[in-house]
Structure to design on (359 residues):
């Protein structure tokens, strides 16, 4: 008999339908990760002997994982075979990949791109590299087919769940991402004690470590990686493609537009606080309105005072205020200057005289 039951987490009591959704959603996510891994290996190999193909498929949506890019690579795995492709053959490749519009324009563009000058390997080396490309191409083909089939099955199983309407009602959460979220959270209402426990399980709650006077806040690394990956997709879809993103994610004082890092604009309520001389907000604060005092003794000779500028801090009386905005100063004074200009000037010393010179 175990006596440390408090140190272990009980298994969730999920329904049979939720367990089925979890099996399909996790398998589909594994297929997507395999597709990404295989898709990263293929460009690295093509860059060594077929850079013109990468430039030709770059404008295609989906890159190398798209059906058109894979069909084109299967028809012409080497630069020599790609250069021999005619426009009619490229049109057949586009139709075989499922393209229905822009076939003539796409075939013309690919025909010119595949014939562009590029760095080449020796003919025998290109031939064997093309054979290796065909073996590498089978992995993303199988991964793409598996991902599409499993995604369709996961969505169909989710739609049979009684909580499917609630899950997909969140802004930015679609059927496939909702299936992943439901697969990791489950439908057991007593699995998590509160919302904070769910945030920690998903990795959304940061870790705060305090020791004495030092405090550090770091990201939570120990988490459910599948749920965290689905959370990233959910967040990106909510902030970019959701209908409520513009009304909930952008503050009202930020100007509209794609640049979210723009600085807030001043409204009519703060326009009167702008300094008219510098077109800037007022910099005068209570700490800058205190009387300034110089630590160095001020020479009292009239010759030294005549050399000082009337605007320098050293020529200012101990009780005078620093020059600021017209809102805080009297008429006829200049606006507040930079901090470096308000530093006390060093005392002016009399010139040295040679020894033996009478005073």
């Amino acid at each position: 008999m175990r006596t440390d039951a408090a140190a272990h987490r009980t298994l969730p009591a999920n329904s049979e339908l939720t367990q089925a959704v979890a099996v399909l959603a996790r398998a589909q996510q594994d297929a997507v990760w395999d597709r990404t891994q295989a898709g990263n290996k293929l460009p690295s190999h093509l860059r060594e002997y077929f850079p013109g193909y990468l430039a030709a498929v770059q404008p295609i949506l989906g890159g190398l994982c798209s059906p058109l890019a894979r069909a084109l690579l299967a028809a012409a795995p080497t630069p020599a075979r790609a250069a021999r492709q005619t426009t009619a053959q490229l049109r057949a490749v586009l139709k075989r990949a499922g393209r229905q519009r822009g076939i003539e324009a796409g075939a013309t563009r690919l025909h010119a791109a595949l014939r562009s000058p590029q760095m080449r390997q020796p003919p025998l080396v290109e031939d064997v590299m093309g054979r290796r490309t065909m073996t590498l191409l089978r992995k993303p083909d199988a991964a793409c087919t598996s991902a599409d089939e499993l995604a369709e099955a996961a969505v169909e199983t989710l739609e049979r769940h009684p909580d499917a309407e609630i899950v997909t009602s969140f802004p930015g959460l679609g059927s496939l991402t909702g299936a992943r979220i439901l697969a990791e959270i489950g439908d057991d209402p007593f699995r998590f004690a509160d919302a904070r426990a769910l945030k920690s399980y998903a990795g959304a709650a940061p870790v705060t470590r305090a020791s004495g006077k030092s405090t550090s806040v770091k990201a939570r690394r120990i988490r459910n990686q599948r749920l965290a990956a689905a959370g990233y997709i959910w967040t990106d879809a909510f902030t970019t493609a959701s209908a409520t993103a513009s009304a909930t994610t952008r503050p009202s004082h930020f100007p509209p537009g794609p640049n979210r890092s723009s600085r807030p604009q001043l409204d009519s309520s703060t326009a009167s606080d702008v300094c008219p001389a510098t077109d800037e907000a007022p910099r005068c604060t209570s700490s800058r309105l205190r009387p300034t005092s110089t630590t160095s003794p001020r020479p009292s000779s009239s010759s030294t005072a005549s050399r000082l500028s009337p605007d320098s801090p050293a020529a200012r009386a101990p009780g005078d205020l620093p020059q600021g905005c017209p809102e805080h100063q009297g008429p006829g004074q200049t606006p507040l200057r930079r901090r470096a200009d308000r530093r006390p000037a060093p005392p002016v010393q009399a010139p040295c005289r040679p020894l033996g010179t009478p005073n």
About this structure: The chain has a mean pLDDT of 75.
